[in-house]
């Protein structure tokens, strides 16, 4: 309903406001362009009209190749999606399941040891998994073994689709 009202208003207030909104949009776009082309702004060096060192036409082929793989987030800890993306971009042929798992393990500090070596010797515990009750450990291992083939097939399929998409993207880039 919102989309319909936005592009084809039926409400009289919205109809009356449309001409003013159109004028405001033009003013906003001009202000935005002015800000982008301001040499004192950080965006200036990336704009084609500025002939900046990072603009596509003025950059070196090496820089153009490197730019798309630059991290687009400020802090990987703030976003689980950013962690997955970073793992996929860094390690190439990695399944989305594995990339997500590594991101989660890293972000949640699952591998950091919460007990000292002396406590490990005294309690005979060597990590989080070994602290689980025996029934739960057996259940986890059995479930993992049962799902291994399906997970591997799904993971390989996802990797192949990822490789095809990357190949297609490279072909489009060459064209």
Question: Care to describe what's here?
Answer:
There is one protein chain. The chain is elongated, with a radius of gyration of 26 Å. It is 62% helix and 0% strand. The chain has helices at 2-7, 12-36, 61-66, 80-91, 96-107, 117-123, 134-174. The longest helix has 41 residues, at 134-174. It has 2 domains: 2-54, no CATH class; 68-174, no CATH class. The protein is mainly α. The protein has 7 helices and no strands.
Topology:
Layout: H1 2-7, H2 12-36, H3 61-66, H4 80-91, H5 96-107, H6 117-123, H7 134-174
Fill in the keyword field for this structure.
175 residues, mainly alpha, 2 domains, elongated
What percentage of the residues does DSSP assign to strands (E)? under 5%
SS content category: mainly alpha
Give the topology string: H per helix, E per strand: HHHHHHH
Largest β-sheet summary: none
Radius of gyration: 26 Å
- Give the total of domains: 2
Helix content: 55-70%
Tally of individual helices: 7
- What is the number of strand segments? 0
Straight-line N-to-C gap:
41 Å
Low-confidence stretches: none
Mean residue pLDDT:
79
Shape annotation: elongated
Question: Quick gist of this model?
Answer:
The chain has 175 residues and is an all-alpha fold. 62% of the residues lie in helices and 0% in strands.
